[in-house]
Amino acid sequence: MKILITGASGFVGGNFLQRFSSRSDLDILGVARRPIPQPNYRQIDLCQTIKLDFKPDVVIHAAAHVSPWGSKQQYHAKNIAATQNVVNFCEEKQVSKLIYLSSSSVYYRDEAQLNIQESTSIGPDFINDYAATKYAGEQIVKGFSGRHVILRPRAIFGPGDTVLFPRILEAAQKKRLPLFKTPEPVIGDLIYIDCLTDYMLHAALNEHIEGEYNLTNAEPIAMQPLLLSVLERLGLPKPKKTLRIETAMGIATVIEAAYRLFRLSGEPPLTRYGVSVLAHSKTFDVSKMLRDFGPPSVSIEEGITQFIQWQQNHA
User: Fold this and answer.
1) CB 264 within 8 A of CB 254
2) Spatial separation of the C-alpha atoms in residues 186 and 278, rounded to whole Å
3) CA 131 → CA 4, 37, 55, 66, 151, distances in Å?
4) Fewer beta carbons under 10 A from the terminal one: N or C of the chain?
């Protein structure tokens, strides 16, 4: 089977390319914006018309602007325009299946949400531009004339993570990481990177996999004890400040406004999205995933241990 994976220089796409390229039954080509000296990789800009001398059976579109901070132009170009170009490429090459890596954030509200199902209502308002443009990408993918799969993973972590834990660990190192006062413990789902890429490959290889899927490790966990445990195992300082959610959200609002007004570079140390994700429970019904994909290949505890070992080796 011939598979094209976009975003192959990033966390998810790169993991997929590295794990499965050696399989004799697969011919995988990775594409992304950055140069990588690898024979089955091409440097291309998905925001432009895609021209490749490769006719895949399946395309996995994992490329995106995944940061919770950015301009509307960045999100539109990398999450909407690029997705349309991928669909156009699939139509031109008569690809049989398109797999789109969306995000669980399409569901998010600024409140606790438990047992989110694939049928849970989405929009019309979104928690940020990332969520809005990922959902817009879903609608583009649904217009593809071939078969499609939409995957909505929740909080991807593991060796090579560039989004979830790095921000938390950096804030802890700088002693800027607060804890939040919440009326009840914050419970959340996560998914380990190898579990996700296993599921991506399963979706590519199995003809009966179609439609939308929530993807997690099927192990909802108390987020604050997990975070404190990771910090302790890495020898990082534990947070000393405890903030009410309303206070943290107010501080984040002011910081974001300053960054936009003065066009400051980088990402704000505290964002409203970051506060909302850490302060509100988010759990998912993954019965459809378990039925069609099977149980995760790696447990949360095993995944955390692998991540900590990787972090210690790359500190």
Assistant:
1) no
2) 7
3) 24, 32, 31, 9, 14
4) C
Report helix, strand or coil for 59: strand
Token pair for 189: 């789902």
**Structure tokens given for 134:** 């990922």
Least-confidence region, from 22-36, 118-132, 173-187: 173-187
Q: What tokens were used for 70? A: 């950015």
Q: 30 has which bridge partners?
A: 5, 41
Pull the structure tokens for residue 21: 């390229």
> What interhelical angle do 300-314 and 223-233 show, nearest 10?
40
Residue 313: exposure state from Cβ atoms within 10 A (0-12, 13-18, ≥19): exposed
Closest CA to 168 of 305, 16, 284, 307: 307
Q: How do residues 25-56 score in pLDDT, each as one tens digit?
A: 999 999 999 999 999 999 999 999 999 999 99
Burial 217-237 (b: 16+ CB within 10 A, else e): bbebbebbebbbebbeebebe
The two three-digit tokens of residue 235, written as one number: 């020898």
**Phi/psi at 15 (nearest 5 deg)?**
-65, -45
